[in-house]
Amino acid sequence: MTWLRALLAAGLSVLMPGAGHALVRDWLRAVGFAGLFLAASAILLPIDQVAALGPITSSGDLSKYATVMTEETGQMTQFFLSFIALFAAIDATFRALGFPPGGTDDDGATCPHCGKEIDEELEFCHWCTTRLDPDPETADDGPVRP
């Protein structure tokens, strides 16, 4: 299920950067990648030619937009927008697989199932609800009954 979610996040990010992060519920990164892509599109794309085409009402209109995107933009613009989409897809994939954004932290206990940091006092992981086995060295067996 995790791999399927990661592939879906990557595919959505290729279509629209930030959509894969929204699937993973990483809202700040979703807004960041979507904002970066839309800002770069507004700056780099030939808006006057796109605006002259009007609203999209059929699949034929969509092909006109694709023609403007491929023929009327330079290679550097296409590379830059593709780079943003590819970077967003890679980042969304790693986030969906559960990798932390800053690398690994060895400070606290982690869940053996999902790998995320957990509260050592709880008997379950609050991220994936996996039941945790108590540590035999620190476990208190309670009062001894005869």
Summarize the structure.
The protein has 146 residues and is mainly α.
| Weakly predicted, low-confidence segments | none
The number of helical segments is 6
- Structural category: mainly alpha
Q: Can you summarize the main beta sheet?
A: none
Binned, the helix content reads: 40-55%
Can you tell me the overall shape? elongated
Number of domains: 2
Q: Rg, please? A: 23 Å
| First and last CA, distance | 48 Å
Arithmetic mean of pLDDT:
79
Strand content: under 5%
List how many beta strands DSSP finds.
0
Query: What is the N-to-C order of secondary-structure elements (H for helix, E for strand)?
Result: HHHHHH
Give the SSE layout.
Elements (H helix, E strand, L loop, with lengths): L1 H14 L3 H5 L3 H18 L2 H7 L5 H13 L3 H22 L50
